[in-house]
Amino acid sequence: MSYTKPVVVLVPGAFHRPSSWNALAEGLRKQGYTVLTPPLAVCGEATDAKQLVGTTALDDVRIIHSNILPFLDNGRECVVVSHSYGSVPAALAVEGQTVEERAAKGLSGGIKAMVTIAGFSYPVRGKSIMGDDSEPPIMPYHVLEEEVLHLQEPAKPLFYSDLDQEGQDAAWENLSKAQSRASFCLFPNFITSDILIPKTYILCEQDKAVDPSHQEAFAQIGQYDKIVRLPSGHSPFLSMPERVLEVIVGAAQS
User: Fold this and answer.
1) Under a CB-based contact definition with an 8 Å cutoff, are residues 13 and 85 in contact?
2) What would the pLDDT profile of 142-195 be if each residue is shown by its tens digit?
3) Which of 139, 175, 213, 251 is deepest in the core (most CB within 10 A)?
4) Which residues pair with residue 142 across a beta bridge?
């Protein structure tokens, strides 16, 4: 069978379950795309907290690879889409797996493009997201207990500022509420600016969780080829999935 459309893998943000992508994934599947929604290894429920200790973005990379490599090895191309924290393992998962890199090793298939929604870019190899040797601060809506961050309800209107109250409540109930502290403390030697495939950044202009000015900086640091500005909060795949779908389809068709 010959495939003309790439596989789309959707990597969720911090505390988000794969089901947060449901509306977007359904729209993509209706257009004939194979869609993968891997879970994050670093987050879960408070009852799972001990299992989360010490898990990092590298554990998420392994899950992403376990989902996409069977398709790449079968000659398929892939577009990697990520949200917020998910941009960190998504970027790491691209290393060595682009169409060009795999072809150089005599392999077919590969990652052809990436789309990042309100995501992060490391400014310096081998340093933290701050660009130095310090760990990022703990957010006011996180409570740290035994190396696990527990998400607190003040995050709800920040994550979902452009949803009505009913939408916010539903999205909040669909979140995992615990994530390893270690997942936010990576010092990677491969960073977004090293990625040479086409990269699109969706900048959320009304974001209350990741300031739009910071997103602007991350897009520049990551050397994204294209910036798409949406009048959305932090989670446009919930508030305006049709707009996000258009961006992903554009990246898939390029």
Assistant:
1) yes
2) 999 999 999 999 999 999 999 999 999 999 999 999 999 999 999 999 999 999
3) 251
4) 151
Q: The pTM is what?
A: 0.96
CATH code of the domain covering residue 201: 3.40.50.1820
User: What is d(CA 123, CA 209) in angstroms, rounded to the nearest whole number?
Assistant: 20
Q: Which residue do the tokens 């990576």 mark?
A: 186
Per-residue pLDDT tens digits for 50-76: 999 999 999 999 999 999 999 999 999
Domain count, the chain: 1
Q: Which residue do the tokens 């790449």 mark?
A: 72
3-class secondary structure, 96: coil
Contact 234, 118 (CB under 8 A): yes
Task: Please check whether residue 1 lies inside any domain of the structure.
Answer: no
Domain range holding 124?
Answer: 7-253
Radius of gyration of the chain (CA): 17
How remote is the C-alpha of 33 from its chain's centroid? Answer: 19
User: What number is the average pLDDT over the span 28-44?
Assistant: 97
